[in-house]
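can u pls check wat happens w/ pyridoxal-5'-phosphate
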Amino acid sequence: MALRERLRADARQRHAAGLDRTRRVQDARLGMVADCDGVTLVNFCSNDYLGFAQHPAVVSTFRAAAAEYGVGSAGSALVSGYFSAHRALEEQAAALFGYDAALYAGSGYLANLGVLTALLDARALCVQDKRNHACLIDGARFSGAALKRYPHADVAAAEAALNGATQDLRLLVSDGVFSMDGDAADVAGLAQIAARHDATLMLDDAHGVGVLGATGLGSLQAAGLGAGDVPILVVPAGKALGGQGALILSNRDVIAHLVDTARPYLFSTAPAPAMAAALSQSLRLLATEAEHHALLQNNIRQFTALAAHAGLPLLPSNTAIQPLLAGDNDRALRWSEALRARGFWVSAIRPPTVPPGTARLRITLTALHTPAQIETLVETLHGVIKDDDGPAY
Ligand SMILES: Cc1ncc(COP(=O)(O)O)c(C=O)c1O
């Protein structure tokens, strides 16, 4: 069959290039110790930055809400799938992040796709950082807008892309913290050029919320900015909030427009109401229990200090994402396998997730890691890289 032959040829090519993927099966987990494919490993590649996915209060809220509402929402939000838990979460998120209104979507991918396809069309311009998350790029492409991608973190290039734009509607879009690099966008700089060129700034703060800012409210808090500077904020909930879905925060006009027209929202079953309730609990913890954020910050500091002392080739980052550059795909895979054999779970990230020649280990820190686990990881990394057959780092 032509399809199968073609797929097998593609698969052979991916294998030869070190680009085939494996899904590891996780079973029980306790803190950051996971049963992964039957082996006990310390997980250093989870996005559960604050440990909320396992926080007893979040788990018990989820359980109680499932008992009350049932499991699935059983409908699109526009038909019968919108529950009081969804509404409460939206109101709470809007108040916490300082926006007029919010919409709770099924995932970060769907949220970004929904915002971009609902707001943009062929008459609009969308300017994006080259390293924005794939769903932001996909959303702009699907919208039919003119898409200009500027070199990573280059605010002057972003301004050049806006300069002289003929389109009335201009949307400037960036990750708050870049998911594979861990560096933070210059949100204040982007807000300034957006204002200068009458563009709307949209930020995806998947990896900033829970991590950056004095109390972990994210990139806007860290930059001292608010809804007036960044009129659209997307907060995917599968990272530091420990759940699933995403909150889109904006003014009432934007949210009403999305409710009426965002196809990924309209034509998809609403997320489980119990998940909305659990996320409300996560937001309460974020607002009231400072210790989770403080523990994460300590762990980031400990890791970066030890790694610098050991001379590990880390990319510059002060967030929970700490990439260790391998360059070559096979080398990244070898490092990851060697770590696994020594009790650590750190996945290798390869193209197309990152640019060719920049394969890496994406190490993530969480509030649940212990100082001893971090210390042993750095020692082990040092040994693994030193013993590797490939060129020295
Ligand atoms: C920056 C960023 N935005 C959006 C997403 C997508 O969110 P979700 O996993 O909820 O679809 C991710 C990661 O998955 C991400 O890293």
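The pocket of pyridoxal-5'-phosphate is lined by residues 107-109, 133, 135, 175, 179, 204, 206, 236, 238, 246 (CB under 6 Å).
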